[in-house]
Amino acid sequence: MTRVFSGIKPTGNVHLGNVLGALVHWVDDQHRADSIYCVVDLHALTVQQDPAELRQTTFRLAQALLAIGLDPSVCTLFVQSHVHEHAELAWLMECTASHGELSRMTQFKDKSTKAGQGFVSGGLFTYPALMAADILLYDTNQVPVGDDQRQHVELTRDVAERFNSRYGPTFVIPEATFPTTGARVMDLQDPTSKMSKSQDHAPGTILLLDEPKTIEKKFKRAVTDTESEVRFDLAAKPGVSNLLSILGAATGRTPEQAAVGYTQYGPLKADTAAAVIERLAPIQARYAELGRDPSELTRTLAAGAAKATEIAAPTLARAQANIGLLPPNSSTSVVVGVL
Ligand code: AMP
Ligand code: TRP
After folding, report:
1. CATH number of residue 230's parent domain
2. pLDDT digits over 161-212, tens only?
3. 146 lines ligand 1 (CB under 6 A)
4. Could you say which DSSP state residue 165 is in?
5. Which of 114, 185, 223, 250 could serve as 17's disulfide partner, Cβ 3.0–4.6 Å?
6. Which ligand is nearest to the CA of 65?
7. Is 64 in the pocket of ligand 2 (CB under 6 A)?
8. Residue 300, domain extent
9. End-to-end CA distance of the chain
10. How does 260-284 read in b/e, with b if 16+ C-beta sit within 10 Å?
11. Mutate which of 13, 18, 246 for ligand 1 pocket (most atoms within 8 A of beta carbon)
12. Radius of gyration of the chain (CA)
């Protein structure tokens, strides 16, 4: 069976772009593939975090993933730092990736340039090696990600192939997959940039836990254009097209289908808000329900980590053995025999 692995960072709040662009696919995939999903808290450490807030955000993100529909009896859901094999394999990956390869990662270049003279952690640079470890530990076939992660999955493939050719068959070579349906959700105030986590509390971002009134208000104020024609045209009408993408994704239709019957922006905004409210309502209810029993979520995550470890531990052991690390319980004859 196809093995799927993906990860999401516990930073900021989950927003509508995460839900419609990625997480609904995670929920679908769990029924067609052996799916493993990870809250990648170690990846969040590339920038300084407030410890209490990181704990909260990690827990709340897992709660949100279950609320959206991940079923721990079908898929594996766990927190990255609970499976120590990730950090251990990451070192082997750092030593297999080259400095040049890591330097060419556009995400590193963008983020380090943005930081300017400010603090840039070594982890920001080696981040893709940790991501490669995440993926390779599980003999992953497919990695559903957004377009911005394409280069990191390519690097994962290159590093896996290099390791296999240096030390013998060790890793399965994964491929990135990009959802063909669903929305690329844009910021409601700036429809040419993606709705994003860094825009928390911004009027252009719909958060998973926004109240209906807030959602209505944000859609009412959404930026459109000075015409009055409703049609899906990303280049000429980014604001209206974004509303149609959202309305379509929230109601299981294409943006073009969603456009049928609308002649004015007002009703389109109102109906999009209503559709989003309806789509999020059961998720919000389930989120609240899960919040009433935090110890149950803690148990679910522990069980997920145990399931993940069963796959990750033998993969790490294989990589360590193949690269020549001395097994802790090897007999002298094995070692001397090899020499
Ligand atoms: P991030 O919020 O950037 O950590 O992304 C988590 C997942 O959500 C990734 O798979 C992204 O591709 C996806 N995602 C983030 N923002 C959007 C957006 N505005 N529209 C669609 N998908 C998104
Ligand atoms: N780097 C990814 C992001 O920023 C998150 C991530 C970490 C990931 N490890 C992963 C995604 C492994 C897919 C597979 O979105």
Report:
1. 1.10.240.10
2. 999 999 999 999 999 999 876 668 999 999 999 998 765 568 999 999 999 9
3. yes
4. H
5. 185
6. 1
7. no
8. 3-182+293-323
9. 39
10. eebeebeebbebbbbbbbebbeebb
11. 18
12. 22
